[in-house]
Design goal:
- The protein is mainly α.
- The longest helix is centred in the last third of the chain and has 29 residues.
- The radius of gyration is 16 Å and the shape is globular.
- The protein starts with 7 loop residues before the first helix and ends with a helix.
């Protein structure tokens, strides 16, 4: 997506639905980090197609592995800061890994619905998810984000007032 923040909507929604199974900070990071390469293509220093290897399931899995590794390796003082956006849960290695995979794979799926140059199952050619329905996908991302933020706000509000998750 040309505007990476759209990817945050589905990530917020999924993270709100499964807070103990999907680590929210990891999910959010993994859902947008893939576009760093695309931004470098669009804005100059890299050449090649906007949607390259990272917007494949294989490439996204590599990204997810790196993101999960970085999150799990955070020093305790940084992890404590990150805990502030974890609604009542601490990160388990399984939740971090799942958050990274879901975030990265959802990025590929969303881009695959919009762009013909995405080949999600590379090295196999083609894109079986292509819809080209930009308004529908962007609207769905915004709606998912609004619902996700609402669910998280309700969960955070409850944990702030009761000290529970």
């Amino acid at each position: 997506m040309p505007l990476t923040p759209f990817h945050l909507g589905p990530a917020l929604f999924l993270g709100a639905l499964a807070p103990r199974r999907l680590d929210l900070p990891t999910l959010l990071i993994a859902s947008v980090v893939i576009d760093v390469r695309a931004a470098l293509v669009v804005f100059g220093p890299l050449g090649g197609p906007v949607h390259g290897f990272l917007t494949t399931v294989l490439g996204a899995t590599v990204v997810a592995t790196l993101v999960a590794g970085v999150v799990l390796a955070l020093p305790a003082r940084l992890d404590g800061l990150v805990d502030r956006v974890r609604p009542g849960a601490t990160a388990t290695p399984a939740a971090v890994a799942a958050g990274a995979l879901v975030g990265a794979w959802s990025h590929v799926l969303l881009d695959a619905t919009l762009y013909a140059d995405v080949t999600p199952f590379f090295p196999l050619p083609g894109n079986p998810f292509l819809l080209g329905a930009f308004g529908l996908v962007y609207g769905g991302c915004v709606a998912a984000g609004v619902v996700g933020i609402s669910l998280l706000a309700a969960r955070f509000g409850r944990s702030w007032h009761t000290g529970a998750s």
